[in-house]
Amino acid sequence: MPVSIQKKISGLISRFLWEGSEDKSKIHWLSWSKVCSAKDNGGLGIINLEEMNRALIGKWIWKFGNDLEGMWRRVIVAKNPRIHKSLLPGTDLVMKGSWMWRDIWKSFTAEDTFGNTLRKNLGIKIGNGKNIKFWSDIWLGDTSLQVRFPRIFALATNKLCYIADVGRRGPSGWSWEIQLRRNVFDWERLQWADLLNCLNSVPIQGLEHDWIQWRGSTDGCFSVKSFRAALGVQNSDRNFWKNNVWLGFAPPKVEAFFWLVMNARAPVRAELRKRGISLIDGDSCPLCQSCPETVKHLFFNCFGVWQIWMSFCKAVGVEMVVHEDPKNFVENWNAMGQVSKKNWIPFIPFSVIWSVWLYRNDVVFKGAKVDWVQLRFMVKFRLATWMKAKFPNNLITLEDLLLDLNLADSIMVSEKDKRSQAHWTPPPKGFLKLNVDGATSVETNRAGIGGLLRNEEGINLWCFSEAVDLGPPSLAELEAVLRGIRFFLASVWCQNLRLIIESDCRKVVDWLNGVVNPPLLLRNGIIATMSTIQNKGWFVRWIPRGCNTAADGLAKKGIG
């Protein structure tokens, strides 16, 4: 997307958010970068178009290293012969490339947050070693071998060789054969030994192709979402936003205003005066007329509002002190709910703050008289209404909730029970059910697979738990599926019964059901497996992790 179009669209979004127009600009209460931050990081989660544009461009770099037979790659390689075997573009730009390729290359090599994040999270993974330059590519650790072992690189006879050129596979596995122009001197032996130790720690799996792994996601596949997540700075208070603001307890408009208040930003009189807006009635609080109207005062410290907060504390038998910071106030308020074991307590801040704001506007713009009893009733009414909207299937009436808010505990407990009811179910008659899972451990650099076969009575007929080569979790999950299929095809049950395969990895399920195309290096094997599944009349289904705990335990056991 051209930069000029990108800026224009961002401007339209910004004006819509702050209720401005082409003729009249409104106050932007928070920076655009803050607004575009993820919700868990204190933002609104609005898409940053520059970030999205760079992420979409970055995906082409990942595809360049994985779609080795793609037509678009072959065209680029034909115009840039020096990168015909490379998984990643070189650092030198070939000017005869198309403007589109030049933009992709510039985005990849740029020394900015986007470029650095992209390069940092793209990792070269070894297959057959035919596309990875042994000395210059970064495939072992964080730097190239020519930088880590400069003396050995200087002695190498072939400095442009690929991994496949410096070793061979024998009966006992892969062995390295690095050709040097002379024997190493004594003072070079330590570096030579370190190089060999590093090389011997790398398993050469002998897959069909080398490939590029995206470290920003667990399955190794690039996605715009994972790139944007990698760009985001993790704030120390990210748990606050997730646990106290974006709960789905109030309408989205209310949550957005609540977010503003938690950032100590709202169009109260004190904030308007800071921004140079003249006020006829001064900056005193319209509800009590005794203090300046700040965010903290209006929503928390104003005498009548504080009495409303305290009435809820009294209802649950808990005391609370005043907190100057809105975030501290709400955090401690919800902690009070945990102490009192009242699950409806987190609804209250939304209802109080929104009701106070609407009532304040009625006083300022419609000349309404302050009636604290009426305001307290509106807080309770909104609270009860939102709880009924959140849990519509409950039989407790709105009138009953208004009389006794403690009835809301039974609503939320029953909803929690419903969510916890997910469990494994046995297959129908004429079927066996195969549950599989794959697990990886970055700490131990190992992976495992597990699965079990059960009949219509839930009896375990067979299970497995094995260690496998470390790779993306989706590959481990696929290997678990194939392991289970091989066993079932060789068993006596295959003659009379059909199979239902269940996995909690949606990507693998989508591959086997033909919903999405698998990676190129796995395509042939997956197509053959799909053919077997279709010919046999089997089914492949996705299930939540809670329904797959037995297979998950076997996979983790396989890690060792």
UniProtKB/TrEMBL annotation:
Reverse transcriptase zinc-binding domain: residues covered: 222-309
InterPro entries: RNase_H-like_dom_plant, RNaseH-like_sf, RNaseH_domain, RNaseH_sf, RVT-Znf
Domain RNase H type-1 residues, every copy: 435-557
CDD domains, per database record: RNase_H_like
Species this protein is from: Hibiscus trionum (Flower of an hour)
Protein's recorded name: Reverse transcriptase zinc-binding domain-containing protein
Gene Ontology MF terms: nucleic acid binding; RNA-DNA hybrid ribonuclease activity
